[in-house]
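agent> Task received from the user: take the single chain below, predict its 3D structure, and emit structure tokens. No templates, no multimer pairing.
agent> Plan: (1) validate residues, (2) run structure prediction, (3) serialize to tokens, (4) report one or two observations.
agent> Step 1 OK, no nonstandard residues flagged.
tool_call: predict_structure(input=
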Amino acid sequence: MNAETEEKRLIEQQKHHFNSIANRYKEARSGSNHLLIKDLIWRHSLKNLSFDDKEYRVLEAMCGFGEGRSLLNKHLGIDLDYEGFDYSDVVVESLRKEQPEIKVRQEDATQFVPDNDAFDIIILIGGLHHVPNHAAKVVENLSVGLKPGGLFINLEPTYGNPLTKWIRKKIYQKNPLFDEETERDFSVSELKSFFRNANLSPFRMRYPGLSSYVLFYNPDAFPILNVGGEWLVKLTFAVDRLFYRNFIGSCFSFATLSLWRKRK
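)
tool_result: status=success, residues=264
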């Protein structure tokens, strides 16, 4: 089997894997603790952004169940002309049934290239680690569709030290929600290189993958950790937030939330 054929096989394997867990993934992430920590993290990370009074064209790449659209609607307070795409036919069909008013289609992120300068905002949440061998190219291709000065918003699993890398590797090996053969996280520096090499400049960098993220952001993966109520979610978030912007956060966080501007 040549390299190209093997890569196609892995992409199809990832598609079938996500199709098999899609409903479980969606159901688990409807719980109150997850919704609260997600709201706190994204509200903090997107606050005080300045936008004009106009409609913004938005592309959500690897959109899943349209999480990015919901977050932008809630936290940016701007009018969105939204479209999204995902490789999972199960997810796309579900999204079309639940939100028939939005534009969403099936596309392979490793092959898709948007029209030049078509979008004001591109958002990609937790998608690149599903296509790790193509991640740099995916970011480069997507950036083609971003207008000069446009905003690229991304959240990805990352590691900043060998211990967090080892922990996630073990999780991928043992938890059936993950496909070890087709998924992997990135070092913080590797993730940043994808965007810098795609003519994007860092605008805002946050490291939210600390205690509150571990406990409550991935209840489908770690249901045993999803204990306590609203008070514990808010308490752990308040502590974590002290480290969102510094070296300690980048070193120990299991995720990086970054905003990038396309150079003019």
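agent> Step 4: summary for the user.
The first helix runs from residue 3 to 28.
agent> Done.
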